[in-house]
Amino acid sequence: MKPSRNLGKAFALAKARYAALGVDVDAALSILETVCVSIQCWQGDDVRGFENTGAALGGGLAVLGSYPGRARTPDELRRDVEKVFSLVPGVHRFALHASYGEFGGLRVDRDAVLPEHFQNWVSWARGLGIGLDFNQTFFAHPMAESGFTLTHPDPAVRGFWIEHGRRCREIGASFGKALGTACVTNLWIPDGWKDTPVDRRGPRERLADSLDEVFKKRFSQTVHWDSVEPKLFGLGSESYVAGSYDFYLSYAVTRRKMLCLDTGHFHPTENLADKLSAVMPWVPGVLLHVSRGIRWDSDHVVTLQDAVVDIAQELVRNSYLGRVRLGLDYFDASINRIAAWVIGIRSVLKAILLALLEPTAELKRLETEGDLTGRLALLEECKHLPWGIVWEHHCDRQAVPSDISWLQEVRRYEKEVLSGRP
Ligand code: RNT
Ligand code: ZN
After folding, report:
1. Which residue segments constitute the domains of the chain, with CATH numbers given?
2. Is the pTM of this model over 0.85?
3. 25-38: per-residue pLDDT in tens?
Protein backbone atom coordinates (compact mmCIF):
# COMPACT_ATOMS: atom_id res chain seq x y z
CA MET A 1 0.00 0.00 0.00
CA LYS A 2 1.43 3.38 -0.98
CA PRO A 3 1.15 6.23 1.49
CA SER A 4 -2.00 8.13 0.65
CA ARG A 5 -1.39 10.43 -2.30
CA ASN A 6 -3.51 12.98 -0.51
CA LEU A 7 -1.37 12.99 2.60
CA GLY A 8 -0.02 16.45 1.82
CA LYS A 9 -3.49 17.90 1.52
CA ALA A 10 -4.78 16.07 4.57
CA PHE A 11 -1.79 17.25 6.59
CA ALA A 12 -2.40 20.88 5.62
CA LEU A 13 -6.01 20.57 6.77
CA ALA A 14 -5.00 18.88 10.00
CA LYS A 15 -2.45 21.57 10.67
CA ALA A 16 -5.07 24.28 10.20
CA ARG A 17 -7.42 22.45 12.52
CA TYR A 18 -4.77 22.38 15.24
CA ALA A 19 -3.73 25.96 14.59
CA ALA A 20 -7.31 27.03 15.28
CA LEU A 21 -6.82 25.62 18.79
CA GLY A 22 -3.48 27.37 19.19
CA VAL A 23 -1.39 24.24 18.57
CA ASP A 24 1.74 24.54 16.43
CA VAL A 25 2.03 21.19 14.66
CA ASP A 26 5.51 21.84 13.24
CA ALA A 27 6.82 22.71 16.70
CA ALA A 28 5.28 19.51 18.05
CA LEU A 29 6.95 17.43 15.34
CA SER A 30 10.34 19.00 15.88
CA ILE A 31 10.13 17.85 19.51
CA LEU A 32 8.87 14.40 18.53
CA GLU A 33 11.89 13.98 16.25
CA THR A 34 14.16 14.17 19.28
CA VAL A 35 12.22 11.71 21.45
CA CYS A 36 14.32 8.64 22.04
CA VAL A 37 13.13 5.25 23.27
CA SER A 38 15.51 2.71 24.77
CA ILE A 39 14.63 -0.58 23.09
CA GLN A 40 14.86 -3.69 25.28
CA CYS A 41 17.21 -6.34 23.87
CA TRP A 42 15.27 -9.06 25.64
CA GLN A 43 12.20 -8.94 23.37
CA GLY A 44 14.30 -10.37 20.55
CA ASP A 45 15.33 -13.66 22.13
CA ASP A 46 12.85 -14.28 24.97
CA VAL A 47 15.28 -13.03 27.66
CA ARG A 48 17.71 -15.88 26.97
CA GLY A 49 20.95 -13.97 26.54
CA PHE A 50 24.18 -15.46 25.27
CA GLU A 51 25.76 -17.13 28.27
CA ASN A 52 24.47 -20.56 27.21
CA THR A 53 24.57 -21.94 30.75
CA GLY A 54 21.22 -23.64 30.41
CA ALA A 55 20.02 -21.99 33.64
CA ALA A 56 16.28 -21.44 33.91
CA LEU A 57 15.08 -17.86 33.56
CA GLY A 58 13.72 -17.67 37.12
CA GLY A 59 13.23 -14.46 39.01
CA GLY A 60 9.49 -14.72 38.44
CA LEU A 61 10.02 -13.87 34.76
CA ALA A 62 8.02 -16.06 32.42
CA VAL A 63 8.14 -15.80 28.64
CA LEU A 64 5.19 -17.51 27.03
CA GLY A 65 4.79 -18.46 23.39
CA SER A 66 6.76 -20.39 20.81
CA TYR A 67 6.59 -18.16 17.74
CA PRO A 68 9.46 -19.15 15.47
CA GLY A 69 12.40 -16.91 14.62
CA ARG A 70 13.95 -15.89 17.94
CA ALA A 71 17.46 -14.43 17.64
CA ARG A 72 19.97 -17.07 18.69
CA THR A 73 23.18 -15.09 18.39
CA PRO A 74 24.26 -11.49 18.98
CA ASP A 75 24.57 -11.01 15.20
CA GLU A 76 21.02 -12.20 14.64
CA LEU A 77 19.76 -9.94 17.40
CA ARG A 78 21.59 -6.94 15.95
CA ARG A 79 20.24 -7.65 12.49
CA ASP A 80 16.69 -7.90 13.86
CA VAL A 81 17.01 -4.63 15.74
CA GLU A 82 18.32 -2.87 12.66
CA LYS A 83 15.16 -4.01 10.88
CA VAL A 84 13.12 -2.53 13.73
CA PHE A 85 14.98 0.78 13.53
CA SER A 86 14.15 0.99 9.83
CA LEU A 87 10.43 0.76 10.59
CA VAL A 88 10.06 3.42 13.28
CA PRO A 89 10.64 7.16 13.08
CA GLY A 90 13.44 8.73 15.10
CA VAL A 91 16.82 7.70 16.50
CA HIS A 92 16.60 5.42 19.50
CA ARG A 93 18.77 3.63 22.06
CA PHE A 94 19.32 -0.02 22.85
CA ALA A 95 19.16 -1.51 26.34
CA LEU A 96 21.30 -4.57 27.01
CA HIS A 97 21.31 -7.00 29.90
CA ALA A 98 24.56 -8.30 31.35
CA SER A 99 23.65 -11.77 30.08
CA TYR A 100 23.99 -10.51 26.49
CA GLY A 101 27.77 -10.25 26.54
CA GLU A 102 29.90 -12.01 23.97
CA PHE A 103 32.19 -14.37 25.77
CA GLY A 104 33.84 -16.13 22.85
CA GLY A 105 32.75 -19.58 24.02
CA LEU A 106 34.34 -19.08 27.44
CA ARG A 107 32.43 -19.37 30.68
CA VAL A 108 32.59 -15.87 32.15
CA ASP A 109 30.62 -15.70 35.36
CA ARG A 110 28.53 -12.70 36.36
CA ASP A 111 31.13 -11.53 38.85
CA ALA A 112 33.73 -11.42 36.09
CA VAL A 113 31.99 -9.52 33.29
CA LEU A 114 34.06 -6.79 31.66
CA PRO A 115 33.58 -3.99 29.13
CA GLU A 116 35.50 -6.04 26.57
CA HIS A 117 32.67 -8.60 26.51
CA PHE A 118 30.43 -5.89 25.08
CA GLN A 119 32.90 -4.49 22.55
CA ASN A 120 30.89 -5.71 19.55
CA TRP A 121 27.79 -4.05 20.90
CA VAL A 122 29.64 -0.76 21.28
CA SER A 123 31.03 -0.91 17.74
CA TRP A 124 27.58 -1.74 16.42
CA ALA A 125 25.98 1.14 18.35
CA ARG A 126 28.69 3.52 17.18
CA GLY A 127 28.07 2.52 13.59
CA LEU A 128 24.38 3.22 13.97
CA GLY A 129 24.95 6.43 15.92
CA ILE A 130 22.87 5.25 18.87
CA GLY A 131 23.39 5.13 22.63
CA LEU A 132 23.40 2.02 24.82
CA ASP A 133 21.79 1.42 28.19
CA PHE A 134 22.49 -1.45 30.53
CA ASN A 135 20.97 -3.76 33.15
CA GLN A 136 22.55 -5.99 35.75
CA THR A 137 21.23 -9.56 35.39
CA PHE A 138 20.22 -10.88 38.81
CA PHE A 139 18.33 -13.93 37.48
CA ALA A 140 18.85 -17.00 35.28
CA HIS A 141 21.81 -18.06 37.38
CA PRO A 142 22.52 -20.82 39.95
CA MET A 143 23.41 -18.16 42.56
CA ALA A 144 19.90 -16.70 42.14
CA GLU A 145 18.06 -20.00 42.36
CA SER A 146 17.03 -19.43 45.98
CA GLY A 147 15.18 -16.31 44.79
CA PHE A 148 17.54 -14.07 46.78
CA THR A 149 20.52 -12.11 45.49
CA LEU A 150 21.52 -8.76 47.04
CA THR A 151 19.37 -9.57 50.10
CA HIS A 152 20.66 -13.11 50.58
CA PRO A 153 21.52 -13.89 54.21
CA ASP A 154 24.78 -15.56 53.13
CA PRO A 155 27.46 -12.88 52.73
CA ALA A 156 29.19 -14.95 50.04
CA VAL A 157 26.10 -14.94 47.81
CA ARG A 158 25.55 -11.26 48.48
CA GLY A 159 29.18 -10.56 47.71
CA PHE A 160 28.94 -12.36 44.38
CA TRP A 161 26.00 -10.20 43.33
CA ILE A 162 27.51 -6.99 44.69
CA GLU A 163 30.52 -7.66 42.48
CA HIS A 164 28.19 -8.22 39.53
CA GLY A 165 26.41 -4.95 40.28
CA ARG A 166 29.67 -3.04 40.44
CA ARG A 167 31.11 -4.51 37.27
CA CYS A 168 27.97 -3.75 35.33
CA ARG A 169 28.24 -0.09 36.29
CA GLU A 170 31.77 -0.10 34.90
CA ILE A 171 30.44 -1.59 31.70
CA GLY A 172 27.64 0.99 31.57
CA ALA A 173 30.15 3.79 32.10
CA SER A 174 32.32 2.36 29.32
CA PHE A 175 29.28 2.57 27.01
CA GLY A 176 28.67 6.18 27.98
CA LYS A 177 32.30 7.08 27.42
CA ALA A 178 32.67 5.27 24.12
CA LEU A 179 29.43 6.54 22.65
CA GLY A 180 29.38 10.05 24.09
CA THR A 181 25.95 9.66 25.63
CA ALA A 182 25.31 8.76 29.26
CA CYS A 183 24.27 5.15 29.82
CA VAL A 184 21.59 4.37 32.38
CA THR A 185 22.30 1.10 34.18
CA ASN A 186 19.09 -0.17 35.73
CA LEU A 187 19.14 -2.40 38.78
CA TRP A 188 16.29 -4.81 39.37
CA ILE A 189 16.43 -7.82 41.67
CA PRO A 190 13.75 -10.48 42.05
CA ASP A 191 14.25 -11.01 45.81
CA GLY A 192 11.05 -11.81 47.65
CA TRP A 193 8.83 -14.40 49.28
CA LYS A 194 5.97 -16.41 47.87
CA ASP A 195 4.38 -16.79 51.28
CA THR A 196 4.12 -14.50 54.28
CA PRO A 197 7.55 -13.79 55.70
CA VAL A 198 8.25 -13.20 59.36
CA ASP A 199 11.33 -11.08 58.82
CA ARG A 200 10.48 -8.22 56.51
CA ARG A 201 13.17 -6.01 57.93
CA GLY A 202 16.29 -8.16 57.43
CA PRO A 203 16.24 -8.43 53.63
CA ARG A 204 15.59 -4.71 53.25
CA GLU A 205 18.42 -3.74 55.56
CA ARG A 206 20.73 -6.08 53.69
CA LEU A 207 19.52 -4.65 50.38
CA ALA A 208 20.29 -1.11 51.53
CA ASP A 209 23.81 -2.16 52.54
CA SER A 210 24.39 -4.14 49.33
CA LEU A 211 23.22 -1.24 47.18
CA ASP A 212 25.54 1.16 48.96
CA GLU A 213 28.38 -1.23 48.16
CA VAL A 214 27.34 -1.58 44.51
CA PHE A 215 27.07 2.20 44.11
CA LYS A 216 30.23 3.15 46.00
CA LYS A 217 32.17 4.24 42.95
CA ARG A 218 31.07 7.54 41.46
CA PHE A 219 30.88 8.18 37.74
CA SER A 220 30.52 11.43 35.89
CA GLN A 221 26.92 12.13 34.94
CA THR A 222 28.11 12.69 31.41
CA VAL A 223 28.83 8.97 31.07
CA HIS A 224 26.72 7.08 33.58
CA TRP A 225 23.54 7.13 35.65
CA ASP A 226 22.10 4.48 37.96
CA SER A 227 18.45 3.65 38.30
CA VAL A 228 16.67 1.34 40.73
CA GLU A 229 13.48 -0.53 39.84
CA PRO A 230 10.74 -1.38 42.37
CA LYS A 231 8.02 -3.98 41.93
CA LEU A 232 4.84 -4.71 43.85
CA PHE A 233 4.99 -8.48 43.43
CA GLY A 234 6.19 -11.13 41.05
CA LEU A 235 5.48 -14.75 40.24
CA GLY A 236 6.84 -16.51 43.31
CA SER A 237 7.14 -13.28 45.29
CA GLU A 238 3.46 -12.61 45.81
CA SER A 239 3.69 -11.90 49.53
CA TYR A 240 6.80 -9.78 49.81
CA VAL A 241 9.26 -8.02 47.53
CA ALA A 242 12.29 -6.57 49.28
CA GLY A 243 12.75 -3.90 46.61
CA SER A 244 9.30 -2.40 46.95
CA TYR A 245 8.23 1.04 45.78
CA ASP A 246 8.57 2.63 49.22
CA PHE A 247 12.02 1.13 49.58
CA TYR A 248 13.43 2.30 46.26
CA LEU A 249 11.74 5.69 46.26
CA SER A 250 13.40 6.38 49.62
CA TYR A 251 16.68 4.97 48.37
CA ALA A 252 16.62 6.99 45.15
CA VAL A 253 15.83 10.20 47.02
CA THR A 254 18.50 9.80 49.68
CA ARG A 255 21.19 8.44 47.34
CA ARG A 256 20.39 10.64 44.33
CA LYS A 257 19.60 7.74 41.99
CA MET A 258 17.18 7.66 39.10
CA LEU A 259 13.95 5.85 39.90
CA CYS A 260 12.79 3.28 37.35
CA LEU A 261 9.03 3.15 37.09
CA ASP A 262 7.75 0.07 35.29
CA THR A 263 4.13 0.48 34.25
CA GLY A 264 3.49 -3.18 35.07
CA HIS A 265 4.85 -3.02 38.62
CA PHE A 266 1.97 -1.41 40.46
CA HIS A 267 -1.49 -2.35 41.54
CA PRO A 268 -3.75 -2.06 38.46
CA THR A 269 -5.76 0.77 40.02
CA GLU A 270 -2.65 2.83 40.72
CA ASN A 271 -1.98 5.61 38.24
CA LEU A 272 1.67 5.75 37.26
CA ALA A 273 1.19 9.04 35.43
CA ASP A 274 0.18 10.66 38.69
CA LYS A 275 3.42 9.55 40.32
CA LEU A 276 5.66 11.54 37.97
CA SER A 277 5.03 15.02 39.31
CA ALA A 278 5.10 13.58 42.84
CA VAL A 279 8.58 12.09 42.54
CA MET A 280 10.28 14.45 40.09
CA PRO A 281 10.98 17.18 42.67
CA TRP A 282 12.91 14.62 44.74
CA VAL A 283 14.83 12.35 42.35
CA PRO A 284 17.42 13.36 39.76
CA GLY A 285 15.51 11.59 37.01
CA VAL A 286 13.16 8.78 36.10
CA LEU A 287 13.63 5.81 33.81
CA LEU A 288 10.31 4.58 32.47
CA HIS A 289 9.86 0.91 31.69
CA VAL A 290 6.83 1.20 29.48
CA SER A 291 4.98 -2.08 29.46
CA ARG A 292 1.37 -3.25 29.47
CA GLY A 293 0.20 -4.96 32.58
CA ILE A 294 -2.69 -7.37 32.25
CA ARG A 295 -4.14 -8.81 35.45
CA TRP A 296 -1.09 -10.28 37.20
CA ASP A 297 1.27 -10.08 34.22
CA SER A 298 3.42 -7.02 33.71
CA ASP A 299 4.97 -7.61 30.32
CA HIS A 300 2.60 -7.48 27.34
CA VAL A 301 3.46 -5.56 24.15
CA VAL A 302 2.77 -1.85 24.62
CA THR A 303 -0.24 -0.51 22.75
CA LEU A 304 -1.73 2.95 22.52
CA GLN A 305 -3.70 2.82 25.74
CA ASP A 306 -4.91 5.54 28.05
CA ALA A 307 -2.27 4.55 30.62
CA VAL A 308 0.50 5.34 28.11
CA VAL A 309 -1.14 8.54 26.85
CA ASP A 310 -1.59 9.72 30.44
CA ILE A 311 2.13 9.28 31.04
CA ALA A 312 3.01 11.06 27.80
CA GLN A 313 0.78 13.97 28.78
CA GLU A 314 2.54 14.30 32.11
CA LEU A 315 5.94 14.27 30.40
CA VAL A 316 4.92 16.96 27.91
CA ARG A 317 2.73 19.15 30.10
CA ASN A 318 5.40 19.35 32.78
CA SER A 319 8.41 19.58 30.45
CA TYR A 320 9.88 16.37 31.88
CA LEU A 321 11.07 14.90 28.57
CA GLY A 322 14.62 16.09 29.30
CA ARG A 323 14.79 14.40 32.72
CA VAL A 324 13.00 11.17 31.91
CA ARG A 325 14.48 8.30 29.95
CA LEU A 326 11.90 6.31 28.03
CA GLY A 327 12.46 2.59 27.85
CA LEU A 328 10.42 -0.44 26.91
CA ASP A 329 10.06 -3.56 28.99
CA TYR A 330 8.06 -6.48 27.69
CA PHE A 331 8.70 -9.85 26.11
CA ASP A 332 6.16 -11.66 24.03
CA ALA A 333 7.11 -14.90 22.29
CA SER A 334 3.63 -15.56 20.90
CA ILE A 335 3.87 -13.15 17.95
CA ASN A 336 6.56 -12.06 15.52
CA ARG A 337 9.20 -10.50 17.76
CA ILE A 338 10.15 -7.75 15.30
CA ALA A 339 6.49 -6.76 15.07
CA ALA A 340 6.25 -6.79 18.87
CA TRP A 341 9.04 -4.23 19.03
CA VAL A 342 7.69 -2.09 16.19
CA ILE A 343 4.18 -1.98 17.62
CA GLY A 344 5.44 -0.98 21.06
CA ILE A 345 7.82 1.71 19.82
CA ARG A 346 5.31 3.21 17.42
CA SER A 347 2.67 3.23 20.16
CA VAL A 348 4.90 5.08 22.60
CA LEU A 349 5.79 7.66 19.95
CA LYS A 350 2.12 8.07 19.04
CA ALA A 351 1.29 8.71 22.69
CA ILE A 352 3.98 11.39 22.87
CA LEU A 353 2.67 12.95 19.66
CA LEU A 354 -0.86 13.02 21.05
CA ALA A 355 0.44 14.81 24.11
CA LEU A 356 2.48 17.26 22.03
CA LEU A 357 -0.61 18.13 19.99
CA GLU A 358 -2.67 18.99 23.03
CA PRO A 359 -3.79 22.62 23.40
CA THR A 360 -2.20 22.62 26.84
CA ALA A 361 -2.12 26.39 27.28
CA GLU A 362 -5.84 26.65 26.60
CA LEU A 363 -6.61 23.71 28.91
CA LYS A 364 -4.57 25.31 31.69
CA ARG A 365 -6.37 28.61 31.18
CA LEU A 366 -9.75 26.92 31.51
CA GLU A 367 -8.57 25.16 34.65
CA THR A 368 -7.13 28.28 36.20
CA GLU A 369 -10.30 30.22 35.52
CA GLY A 370 -12.39 27.49 37.08
CA ASP A 371 -14.14 26.53 33.85
CA LEU A 372 -14.18 22.84 34.62
CA THR A 373 -16.92 22.20 32.08
CA GLY A 374 -14.76 23.70 29.35
CA ARG A 375 -11.73 21.71 30.52
CA LEU A 376 -13.58 18.40 30.28
CA ALA A 377 -15.19 19.27 26.94
CA LEU A 378 -11.88 20.27 25.33
CA LEU A 379 -10.03 17.22 26.71
CA GLU A 380 -12.69 15.04 25.12
CA GLU A 381 -12.54 16.97 21.83
CA CYS A 382 -8.77 16.45 21.58
CA LYS A 383 -9.22 12.70 21.38
CA HIS A 384 -10.59 12.81 17.85
CA LEU A 385 -8.59 15.64 16.34
CA PRO A 386 -6.76 14.49 13.18
CA TRP A 387 -3.56 13.45 14.93
CA GLY A 388 -3.32 10.26 12.84
CA ILE A 389 -2.63 12.35 9.75
CA VAL A 390 0.09 14.22 11.60
CA TRP A 391 1.61 10.87 12.59
CA GLU A 392 1.57 9.65 9.00
CA HIS A 393 3.15 12.88 7.81
CA HIS A 394 5.86 12.53 10.45
CA CYS A 395 6.67 8.93 9.42
CA ASP A 396 6.62 9.88 5.77
CA ARG A 397 9.06 12.70 6.36
CA GLN A 398 11.34 10.40 8.34
CA ALA A 399 11.26 7.93 5.44
CA VAL A 400 9.68 5.10 7.43
CA PRO A 401 6.34 3.43 6.67
CA SER A 402 3.51 5.76 7.61
CA ASP A 403 0.86 3.07 7.79
CA ILE A 404 0.59 -0.66 8.39
CA SER A 405 2.77 -1.30 5.34
CA TRP A 406 5.57 -1.81 7.93
CA LEU A 407 3.96 -5.20 8.52
CA GLN A 408 4.59 -6.26 4.93
CA GLU A 409 8.26 -5.57 5.47
CA VAL A 410 8.22 -7.60 8.70
CA ARG A 411 6.52 -10.47 6.88
CA ARG A 412 9.12 -10.32 4.10
CA TYR A 413 11.91 -10.37 6.70
CA GLU A 414 10.22 -13.28 8.42
CA LYS A 415 10.13 -15.24 5.21
CA GLU A 416 13.66 -14.39 4.13
CA VAL A 417 15.51 -14.33 7.44
CA LEU A 418 13.56 -15.53 10.47
CA SER A 419 12.20 -18.68 8.87
CA GLY A 420 15.79 -19.88 8.42
CA ARG A 421 16.13 -20.13 12.20
CA PRO A 422 14.86 -23.54 13.24
C1 RNT B 1 11.18 -7.41 36.02
C2 RNT B 1 11.63 -6.04 35.65
C3 RNT B 1 12.87 -5.99 34.83
C4 RNT B 1 12.92 -7.05 33.74
C5 RNT B 1 14.04 -6.91 32.75
C6 RNT B 1 14.23 -8.11 31.93
O7 RNT B 1 9.98 -7.42 36.66
O8 RNT B 1 10.60 -5.35 35.04
O9 RNT B 1 13.02 -4.72 34.31
O10 RNT B 1 11.72 -7.12 33.03
O11 RNT B 1 15.18 -6.55 33.43
ZN1 ZN C 1 10.99 -3.43 34.17
Report:
1. 35-358 (3.20.20.150)
2. yes
3. 999 999 999 999 99
